[in-house]
Amino acid sequence: MHNFDVTIIGAGAAGLFCAGVAGQLGLKVLLVDHSEKVAEKIRISGGGRCNFTNRDTTPANFISDNPRFCRSALSRYSPRDFIALLEKHGVTFHEKHKGQLFCDRSAEDIIQVLLAESEAGHVTRWQPCSVKNIRFSASRPHGSCASSYEIDSDRGTIHCASVVVATGGLSIPKIGATDFGYRVAKQFDLPLITPRPALVPLTFDEAAWAPYAQLSGLSLPVKIEVGSKKDKIAFLEDLLFTHRGLSGPGVLQISSYWQSGTPIRLNLAPDTDVADLLSRAKATSRKLIANELAALVPSRLADTWVAQGAALGHNWARPINEATDKSLAVLAERLSNWALSPTGTEGYRKAEVTAGGVDTRALSSQTMESKQPGLYFIGEVVDVTGWLGGYNFQWAWASAFACAKGLAAKAL
Ligand SMILES: Cc1cc2nc3c(=O)[nH]c(=O)nc-3n(C[C@H](O)[C@H](O)[C@H](O)COP(=O)(O)OP(=O)(O)OC[C@H]3O[C@@H](n4cnc5c(N)ncnc54)[C@H](O)[C@@H]3O)c2cc1C
Question: What is the pTM for the complete model shown?
């Protein structure tokens, strides 16, 4: 018989951190994962250097059906707290872009910190270990531990007062992502916000994309937006053309907000009033339009752009002084307000995160305990999704910390 105060299922960022904090608060913790290695996503994150937090984290950097939910946890465990933990362990890091903090050396440094913290909390870790069933058995005490839950695992039945589900989302199934957390939520009648791939490249109809496929590999800073009026959201970030569509930080950000069947809008020269620039060039220059555009955007893109003119009834393959005002206005509009309709995304295979998940209305924002007593959800399995830039790990740390504190307050 295996008795623990708490069983945490999933030894990723949230589960591993929660285990260490709960253990150090005096709880007898079991951490279980079906993978052989801990925290594979930390290992592959940030190009191997893990963008472990963002200095400028605020609740506005998160998407949820219930946007206020994340406030409490984020305020009680901030980027500064995680930075202090890394400094305690001598991990060095640097800021790359817009508050994003990366390890100087390797993502492995973060994993070693979390393992050391869980060792300090005397956490028992079973890996690889599969969990089959979870049963609520509140009325049945087992040994010294007044168990509320029985968990069937391939190392035997576990008895524990509380269960923490930290099994993440569906992205990157080849490194162990499963729908386990959503199934547990359903088993205990907890509502779900339909999961969907987020921070993911967008794809387009093959024929419609043919003129742009040749731009694959080209990257440039853009303004990208979706929605209208008060729902409008925009990012100023890089865009990357791919064979099948668009990627790069700007597109990943907007993908989390994009809804199927709606357009995205791109300004390919966000720092310039393109209409004004072209009309002034018309008065003073005899250069080809493509050459004028090449001062604003990469020349491959400028060439592709003028080549589209014929299909739109305009001749843009000519000197700028020969073009009509109307034709230049159409060109400027198309460059600075390009509306295009993705047909889909690259899906969970390429998505950095899963948006949606366990509906936060069924969880305590203070402790992450669900309406099912003793059952907690933390990290990405919850309907709280961060922007690109270290926010998702910050949510993993903050929700894990809130949960560990809640578990300890209840048990001790
Ligand atoms: C390629 C990539 C790069 C990323 N880079 C960044 C970044 O730089 N910064 C950032 O903030 N975020 C980044 N993310 C997102 C970030 O990795 C996740 O949001 C974060 O790992 C979520 O933590 P988690 O603990 O909730 O889930 P995970 O880290 O996914 O951990 C879930 C754990 O549960 C285990 N598990 C799943 N199902 C079961 C089951 N049935 N039984 C037992 N165990 C199970 C898994 O093996 C895994 O160990 C990246 C994601 C990807 C895919």
Answer: 0.95
